[in-house]
Specification:
Order of helices and strands: HHHHHHHH
Number of strands: 0
Largest sheet: none
Strand content: under 5%
Radius of gyration: 15 Å
Oligomer: single chain
Number of helices: 8
């Protein structure tokens, strides 16, 4: 059984929503998700919209995606979660939102906790270790 080719318009839409996540275009991205784009859409590197929003330091977009059911436990092909991406970017706001949603600092092959230790991000370690 061979896979059907993907419609070029679907590919264009997917590229657009990934760009919106990277840019932090929260309202436009939320509108696409509300209209039916899967909130856990994943690109060819395993990055979800949430991982991209966290990595590009867009806490409002992170919050909007979490509010729409984005899975904070998803791990990309490099073993990173959205929380690890937010820690790497030193985004206290995104880290706080992800932790409040239940993200696990130890999840992933390159966990948020390991990222904080490796890059000597003591302020991020403190956030991860704070009582919730």
């Amino acid at each position: 059984m061979t896979a059907e080719p993907i419609d070029p318009e679907v590919m264009e839409l997917a590229a657009r929503v990934f760009d919106l996540a990277r840019a932090g275009a929260t309202d436009e991205l939320a509108a696409y998700v509300d209209a039916g784009v899967p909130v856990n859409l994943t690109n060819d590197k395993g990055d979800t919209l949430l991982v991209l929003a966290a990595y590009h330091d867009h806490p409002a977009t992170v919050g909007a995606l979490l509010d729409r059911g984005a899975d904070h436990s998803r791990v990309n092909d490099r073993g990173q979660t959205a929380l690890a991406a937010a820690v790497f970017r030193r985004s206290a706001d995104s880290v706080g939102r992800l932790l409040a949603a239940g993200a696990d600092p130890a999840a992933g092959g390159q966990s948020a906790r390991a990222t904080a230790v490796f890059f000597e991000l003591s302020e991020m370690s403190a956030l991860l270790d704070a009582p919730r």
